[in-house]
Amino acid sequence: MNLYSVLVDRAKTHPATLAVVSPEGALTYAELMGWVDNLASGFWRLGIKPGNRVVLLLRNRPVALAAFWACMAIGAVAVPINPENSWRSLSNTIQDVEPQAIIYERVDGLNISACLGEVRPVLIGVDADDADIEIGEFPRLLRGQSGFRVHQPQSDDIALILYTAGTTGRPKGVPRTHGNTIAASHAQVVQCHYEESDRILGVMPLSHTMGLHLYIAATLLGAMYVLMAEMDPERVSGVITRQRITVLYQTPFFYYTLLHSGHTDTQDLSSVTKLGYAGAVMREDLIQNCIDRFRPSAFVNHYGSTEIYTHTVGNVLLRLPGSVGQPGVNASVCIEGAETSETVGEVLVSTSSPEAFRGYWNRPDLTRQSLHQGWYRTGDLGYQDTSGNFYVVGRTDEVIISGGEHIVPQIVETVLAGHPKILEVAVTGEPDNRWGQVVVAYVVPRTSGLRLFELDAYCKKQAALSIWARPRKYVFVRQIPKSATGKILRRELANLEGGL
Q1: What pLDDT, in 10s, does the model give residues 258-292?
Q2: Per-residue CA distances from 195 to 43, 188, 190, 246, 300 (Å)
Q3: Are 381 and 393 in contact (CB under 8 A)?
Q4: Is the pLDDT of residue 84 over 50?
Q5: How far apart are CA 1 and CA 355, in angstroms?
Q6: What's the pLDDT score for residue 282?
Q7: Which of 167-176, 415-424, 444-453 is predicted least confidently?
């Protein structure tokens, strides 16, 4: 099945329904379909054919959606990239994927030519003055010649490549087939209880697996998708109120920022009935804050990855705080080496899932490391309780080895986060001649006057911490470095300057 047929079906069944709403205006499904077909004809005229990669270097805006669907129509491989990425990351990604074309917008400080290296794609600009052709010139390009050949993909044909850096290393490309993407988006609908009448807020970048699958889920239903280019609490609160948003699907960092901004206090958020989050663990107090503010009928925790979109889904958040739930509708999950419940090991997900990728782009070395005998190695450490619920406690590459003992940073963080004078905390290991590594805690104080001896005395009383797991060093900092999804960037902690 071609992803393009999803949009074709919605344009037939919901032609007058609003498909996308943004600061640039609103489009019905029929209007979006017309724009997509014009773009597809233009791409075809420029020589973009099935299998060619097309980089979409665009923020969340309607043209990004139209360009994505146009790629699906002709069988090109869409490669959405966040234009806010660093110059080095953009350059590495573009040269790795070797695109036939790049569609991009003007971004301060971005010199697209400097990112190309030896790659020579067609540069298609959106309000950019250094492109080979402006996207607004397509009608002239098609004068007297239009149309394109709708691609009929094989089951393993790649529809898109999403680049992910996770929390370590350089970006790696994750190819997703048409079947992968449709299966994952259907799962999103079922697992998050979405309906045709929903109004879904789209703040997560379309270059991220959460943002893209959320949007396709909306299209599967014929629902309305409200695009926003950035997470500004004041604007988000206003859009929720004006557009009567019913669905929020974001990271814990989004909810924390929104609810602590003060901008939701005077807004009517009663239209929101469905909440979902992914990308990081949500603390119990934030879960309660979300329930108190939104009173949702559905509140779902989604644990997954770019490689296999759904691992587990949880919907009993307060009863089982910290749990990531049970396997999703398409997933089979296990803990490597676990002979009994509560045993910590690496989380493995079966590649029999229709949502599963088949290997990284141009990285057979990483593919061999990650895929083994029908299982995807997530790199996450976790365990399963006697009721079948899964918990993620850390990363295999983040384990601290001190005095021969293996220490999971997240366990130490959970203990320290319970201290009333700590706002945020991140833990990592530091080389030590005697112990190999010692535990170091980077702390954002909630109030002034926090002292090291208080924290040390607090940790000594915690049964969950062995003598090796207690921090030997505390660094007071203003903020903890995080990824776009709110995950702690541990590799950057050592660069922080303390002294608060």
Answers
A1: 999 988 888 999 999 999 999 888 888 899 999 99
A2: 34, 11, 9, 10, 15
A3: yes
A4: yes
A5: 14
A6: 86
A7: 167-176
Residue located via tokens 């490309």: 173
List, in order, residues 6 or more apart from 269 with CB less than 8 Å away: 237, 240, 241, 293, 294
pLDDT in tens, 143-152: 666 678 899 9
Q: Give 452's contacts (C-beta < 8 A, 6+ positions apart).
A: 474
Phi, psi of 236 (to 5 degrees): -60, -45
Residue linked to tokens 């943004």: 22
pLDDT at 167: 46
154 contact partners, CB below 8 Å, separation of at least 6:
none
- Say if residues 324 and 303 touch (Cβ distance below 8 Å): yes
Return phi, psi of residue 497, to 5°: -100, 125
In order of their start, the domains of the chain are 4-381 (3.40.50.12780), 399-495 (3.30.300.30)
Residue 168: the pLDDT is: 47
Backbone φ, ψ for residue 434 (5° rounding): -85, -50
Question: Token pair 């988000």 is at which residue?
Answer: 236
* Bridge-based pairing state of the strands 247-250 and 224-227: unpaired
User: Does pTM surpass 0.70?
Assistant: yes
Burial class (CB in 10 A: 0-12, 13-18, 19+), 72: buried
pLDDT of residue 482: 85
